[in-house]
Specification:
Elements: H1 3-39, H2 44-52, H3 55-68, H4 78-114, H5 120-147
Helix pairs in contact: 1-2, 1-3, 1-4, 2-4, 3-4, 3-5, 4-5
């Protein structure tokens, strides 16, 4: 397998897996919001705010691709191809799992808000813990890019 092919598989995983995670996370929140709207339609703004949080991991995957795009050249070294593949694998898997788990946290917050509890800020704080690891994975992509 050539180095450029390995690098392209890495960035495809980065964008694809992180994007899939965002899709699942947002869907989990959306399902919770539909149920919560039945009990408390006045909190729609809170539902939307929490449901949007898992979308960032998909954006991180795209930012990672954009960061590494200049390294995707025909005569890429085997080391660079493997490094981009590894960075893509890390960002993709961490983005996927982080968004799904963040969606679950936000969905619980949405359900609680729907039941009348004032937990918007607390839910955002707990959701930030899952987000943190996606940010660390994106930082890994930046560091990989600077090392190449």
């Amino acid at each position: 397998m050539t180095a450029i092919l390995l690098a392209y598989i890495g960035v495809a995983m980065m964008v694809g897996l992180a994007g899939l995670g965002s899709i699942y996370g947002i869907t989990i929140c959306g399902n919770a919001a539909v149920g919560a709207l039945k009990k408390n339609p006045g909190a729609l703004g809170s539902y939307i705010g929490l449901a949007a949080l898992p979308s960032t991991q998909g954006l991180y995957g795209f930012v990672g691709f954009y960061t590494l795009q200049s390294k995707l050249i025909a005569d890429i070294s085997p080391f660079a191809g493997a490094a981009i593949f590894g960075a893509g694998l890390v960002m993709g898997i961490v983005g996927l799992l982080s968004a799904i788990r963040q969606g679950e946290v936000c969905a619980n917050g949405i359900a609680a808000i729907g039941s009348g509890y004032k937990v918007m800020i607390q839910t955002m704080l707990f959701a930030a813990f899952a987000e943190f690891y996606a940010i660390i994975a994106l930082l890994f992509v930046f560091l990989t890019n600077s090392a190449l």
